[in-house]
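FAQ: What does the model actually see?

It sees only this:
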Amino acid sequence: MDEIRGDEIRGKAEGTATVPLSVLDLVTVGQGRTASQALRTSVDIARLAERCGFHRYWVAEHHSMPGVASSSPAVILAHLAAHTERIRLGSGGVMLPNHAPLVIAEQFGTLEAMAPGRIDLGLGRAPGTDGATAAALRRSDRLNEGADDFPQQLAELTRFLDDDFPDGHPYARIHAVPGPVQATAEGGVQSPARPPLWLLGSSGFSARLAGVLGLPFAFAHHFSAQNTIPALDLYRESFRPSAVLDAPYALIGVAALAADDEREARRQVLSGALSMVRLRTGRPGLVPTPEEAEAYAFSPMEREFVDGWLTNIVHGTADEVRTGLDDLAKRTGADELMITANAHGGEARLRSYELIADAYGLPTA
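And it is asked to produce this:
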């Protein structure tokens, strides 16, 4: 395995935060807004996160969702790398079964060359979309086969990243470029370092696999809260020390939104909740405005879903959000919190991260 240091994985808590704080970006697009505006917001939030000492900034792969413009994480990360200098950037995650492992190795090798020592490669096994779109992405309708092959795909990707297929392997003479092969070529001065791998999950499968392989683990608490503690327990119980980590390291994705007052926070998260109602009922669209969400007549079934959904979103004033995040970190034992804010407008998302940074006294260098 090529160079990966534990300090590239483990974050440092800043200000009064008890654990490192990071950002998960879905590049949400609201009604009346464009994808270009959403991507400009992502740059603004990444710059804010860097100034305030958030540890990393990840982008999640989704497809065929009008309100989520993050279908191409590697492209977005290259854009963010050009507008930041220090913050770690990564995928939260790339859905491995949707792609050939060599392509991912090439894309993230390119990102590592653009921003050395700042790139994370988080991997998931879900499609990040509906079945029909997944079939179009994979050119196959055998979707379960792709998920079941995840460990083999992961092993192949790791070999490409490390450039260490054994002699006699069909891929032994194939190299992911940019990558370690350039360090061993005649006259090569390329760094042998490559992005650290993370496994992502919303159930126990990736938790166990991450533990067995000694990799860091990221759990999607923001949409699978009931499974968080069982998955983290399974990860820690399964963990075996590796060349990457000598002890488990787990972050959780957390939906959180702070506003200047409780009512405004409620308005903003209700907008995101209505968006989820439409997605879950096969009507994906742009994120509705807070005004539309307030006026919407939820059916009893929809209201039940929304009430449950909002229970798992930490929202309110900055102090209320800080308390909620601290309680969640203590309850789960997470080593890092990765905050995602789903709202209609970029202004509300940016303001939320500003308020959270202020609540924790994060640095503003």
